[in-house]
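Weekly structure sync - notes
Attendees: PM, LS, DV (DV joined late)
Agenda: review two folding runs queued last week.

Item 1: First target. Sequence and C-alpha cells pasted below for the record.
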Amino acid sequence: MKLGLYSITYLGVWYRGRALTLEELIDRARQFGYAGVEIDGKRPHGNPMDLPADRCHELRRRAADSGVPIYAVAANNDFSSPIPEHREAQLAYVQALIRMTADLGAPVLRMFTAWPGVTLGPDGGRYDIAQRVWRISQHEAGEEQAWDRCRDGLVECARWAVEHGVTLALQNHPPVIADHRDMLRMIAEVNSPAVKACFDAPLAHMAGVTDMRAAAAEVGPLQVLSHFGGEYDRDENGRVRGVVWNWDGSRTPEDFYADFVHGMADIRYDGYIGFELCHPLPQTNGVTPGIEFADLNARLAAEYMGGLIANVAAQAVAST
C-alpha cells in the first residue's frame, strides 16, 4: 500500500487562505512523504475546462519527475437529479474528466453516485445548504427512482472509461449509496469491467461498520482506491493520534484504521490510501484556521498511516 495526498486538502475550501497550485501540491506531497497525488476534479485544481491535453501532459511530467505521480482524479458528480438537463450536464462533465484523467496518466477516476455539493461562505465550505437542496429535489420527484438514475449514469460513463483505459472507482459515499454493500450492489448492476470500488474506512465507520476486516473481505479484488481523513496531534508520549470527523460535526477518537489496514493487507490491496482534509475545521475564537492547519495534519497523517502500513508489513514478514 502507498500513501497518497488528495488535493481537496489544499483546495482553499476548508481553511482560511488561497488554494495551492497543482505544482505546489506536488511539492507538498514530496516534502511530506507521500508517494502520489489525487487531483480533485473541480476548480481551481482539476476542472477539465481548465486542463487541455498539453497542460495535462505538463503536469504529468512534473509529477513523475518529482517522484509523486498522479494516481487518481476525483469526480464530483451527481447522477440522481430528476431533471434531465442536470443529469446531462453531469454526464458531459464526467466524460471530459475521463479524457482528462487519461491525459494526466492517472489510471483511476473516483466516482460518486450523488454528490450534493459544497457551498462557500466567508468562513469556508459547508455541506448543509447543498444537502438540503438535494433532499428537496429528491423528495419532490420521488426518491425511489434515484438509484436507477445513478445506475444509468454510471453505465454510460463506463463505456467512455473503457474507450480511454480508465477505471471508475465508485466510493461508498452517501447519499443513494448508504454503505459498502450498496456500493457493491451498484457495481454489480452496472456490470462493467471498468467499474471497481473505492472503499473508505471513515465512511464505513459512519455507516456503522464495526468489523473493517470483514468488510474489506467483502470488497476483495474490486478495491482500487481508498482515502482516510480526520485530524491529528501528538499525545504526551509523542505518538501521533487521530480523531474522526462525523456527519453531525462531532469528532470521535480513531479506533478502526489499524483493522482497516489489516483488511487491505488481507485482500492484497497494493494501491493508494489518500489523505483528505475535507470537512469544516474547528474554529478558534470564531476564526477558521489557515493553511498551517492543513500542513500540520497532512504531515501527521502521513506519519500515522505510514506507521500503520509499516506495522502490518512487519507482522506479515514475521509470520512467514
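Item 2: Second target, run right after the first with the same settings.
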Amino acid sequence: MTKTAKSSETSKIAFVSDAIYPYNKGGKEKRLFEVSTRLAKEGFDVTIYCMKWWKGKEQERMENGVRLKAISPLFPLYVDSKRSIKQAVFFMLHCFKLLREDFDIMDVDHMPHLVLFSTKIVCILKRKKLIGSWNEVWGKAYWNSYLGGLKGQLAYVVETISVRLPDVIISISLHTTQKLRKDLKVRTPIYTIPLGVDQKVIDAVTPAKNHVDILYAGRLLSHKNVDTLIKAIALVKKKHPSISSLIVGEGPERESLEKLAKELDIEKSVKFFDFIAGDTALYAQMKSAKVFVLPSLREGFGLVTIEANACGIPVVVVNHPDNAAKDLVKNGVNGYIVENTSEDMAEKIMKLLTTKKRDYRKYSEQYNWDILIKKLIPLYTI
C-alpha cells in the first residue's frame, strides 16, 4: 500500500452505515464498498462502523483492506416490506459508541436519517468533520404515501432536519442534488459525484451459459415496480412465445410477484433467482442477456443501468419524477425511457430485442471509478 501525497495528510476515515456489501446488496452498499476499498488502496486508514452482518464472535474484521467494526447487533432492516423504525432507533443509539473511536473524518450514510443525529453529536464533541452521503431524497409526498398520517409527517421532519446536520454533503446524482436544493432547501455545500463501474473487471468476465432475453436485478420492493415488468413480459410473450426472462433479487415482494407470474400463465417464461453471489456472476449474466429492465419508480442513481451498458446491453427505465436512472439513458440510443405502463414497457422491450446490437459500453465510460475516486479524495483530506 502506497500513500499518495494527499492521502498522507489524512490517516483515519470512519464510515457509518447500518448495511454493508456484500452482506446486503444494494446501490448504496455497493457504492460504499467501492469508495472505501479504493481509499484504502490510496493509503487511507478506513473503518466502516455497521451492524454485525457476519457470523462468529468477532466484532471486528478486515476485508479488502478495510476494517469492518460492528457497533450493534444485526437488526432486521424491513418489517412488513417497510424500513424498520425500531432498527433505525437502535442503530442510532449504538452510534454513540463512536465517542470511543479514533478518526479524523466521519462519513455517514443518510439512511436511516436518525443516525445523523447521534453522529452529529459525536462529531461536535470530538471536533471532527461530518460528511453526509446522500443517495436519494424522499420528500413529504413520498413519506406520506410510505408511512401515512402522523408517522409520515414525523419522518419528513426528521429528513428535513437531518440533511442540515453534515458539514458537507456528497450527492450521488444531479437529480438528488436538485431535490436537496429545491425540495429540502439545503444550503450546505454539496458535491455531486456519481457511482461508477470498473470496466476492466467487467471486460474480463466470461458470459454466463444461461442466456435470457430480459433481465432484472435488484431488491424486490414495492417501489421497484417489478410487477409492471412481469405484466410487460406477459404482453411480449403473446408475440414472442419463446421469450425468456430472469428476475434476480430478494425482498418482501417475492411471493406476490411469483403469484402474479403464475396468474398470468408465464411462470415458465419468468425465472426467479436469489441474489447472485458476487459482481462477477452478475456481470456474466448481464452479458448473456439481451435487454436489462429497471422498472423502478424511485432511484437515487440507478447503478445497474450503467453496469448493464458496461456489459454491452441496452436498458429500459421508467419516466418518473423520483427516478434518477432516467437521466442515465439517451432515449433510443443506449436504451429507452418508458411511461409507467406495461404496454409501453413491452413495446420498447420488443424494439430492443429486434434492434441490431451496438457498442453500449461507451455510454458507461464517464462513470469509471478510476476517474471518480480522484474527485472524492480531496473531500477526505484535512
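Discussion on item 2: Residues 227 and 257 are 6 Å apart (CA to CA).
Action: LS to circulate a short write-up before next sync.
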